[in-house]
Amino acid sequence: MPTDPAGLSRWARAALDHVGRVSRGAPLDRSLRVTLNFHPDRLVGDRTVIECLAEERSYRSQFETKISNGGLTAYPGGARWRWEQRSFGGAYDDAPPESRPRYGALNHRGADAGGAIRFGSCHLRLTESVLDRSTFCFPDSVFDPTDYGTAAHCDLAALADAFHDRPHTDLSEGTEGGRLDSYIEAHVHGPVLLDRDVEAIVLDPSFRGTEVEQAARLAHPVIEWTAGRILSVAELQRHPDFRGPEPLIIGPAVAEHDQITARMIGVAARSDRYDPQVLKKLWHLVARFGLPT
């Protein structure tokens, strides 16, 4: 079984073995990359996520940071803990927080915004070698999937693309999932070190010339830019069924010149004036219906 150069913990090896036994399909295309989407300007204590990356030189899991762009259930016995128990055959039941997997997506469509934009406007693009210590599933592990993959055997793309291409309405996407949910979830076993495992930090253009860009350039020598997403307030108001009424209420207050970007939502998040869960839904609207900047 392939391993990363630094070696894998017994928990990681057990998880890879378990998923390998239930995976099907041909080997992955080695040009594909795992991406870790994140919001760089969210706070972890008194520092932003991107500042933490620059200082610590590694990407930490939700069990360590206690923040998430999904659900906040990463604790013993919590929903995330139970999902990992099912997915990895109990391999991580007694693992310390720092030894648990990091979550991302297999960017099998080559999207400039990364494999799972719903979880963040920016992403780390990981190296080819990380494929060999990653496992994959579709749909997201929150839905108790039965289809898994590894670099050696993975047939998940057809499932994800069929879900992506089926007809959707705002209401069905809000209740049953839609294009924001058609990613192949990835789990990176072992640490993610910026100097070893990251090809590039890819930023949303709303962060050009900001402290986020400055910190990113301290964190990694390769900085790239997505096409970005920008959503008009008028377009926001056309989608009341997608995430409910709350983001449509706060959207105009978050907007600048009747436009909403990732940076503006980050400013709102750091102000402590808004419910973080509503801001998360507002970002989903920008990610789904916003236009390239």
Q: What does this protein look like?
A:
There is one protein chain. The chain folds into two domains: 10-225, no CATH class; 230-289. Helix 11 runs antiparallel to helix 12. The model is unreliable at 1-5 (pLDDT under 50). The chain has twelve helices and 14 strands. With 293 residues, the chain is α+β, with helices and mostly antiparallel strands. The strands form four sheets. The chain has an eight-stranded mixed beta sheet, with helices on both faces. Strands 2-3 form a two-stranded antiparallel sheet.
What's the N-to-C terminus distance? Answer: 43 Å
Number of strands: 14
**Helix percentage range:** 25-40%
| Spans of at least 5 consecutive residues with low confidence | 1-5
Strand content: 15-25%
For the largest sheet, list the strands in their spatial order. 8-7-9-5-1-6-11-12
If you compute it from the alpha carbons, what radius of gyration comes out, rounded to the nearest whole angstrom? 18 Å
Given the structure, what is the number of helices? 12
Query: Major sheet, described briefly?
Result: 8 strands, mixed
- What is the domain tally? 2
Give helix and strand order, one letter per element, not per position: HEEEHEHHEEEEHHEEHEHEEHHEHH
Structural class: alpha+beta
C-alpha geometry: globular
**Mean of all residue-level pLDDT scores:** 94
Protein name: DUF3626 domain-containing protein
Organism: Microlunatus parietis
Pfam families: DUF3626
InterPro entries: DUF3626
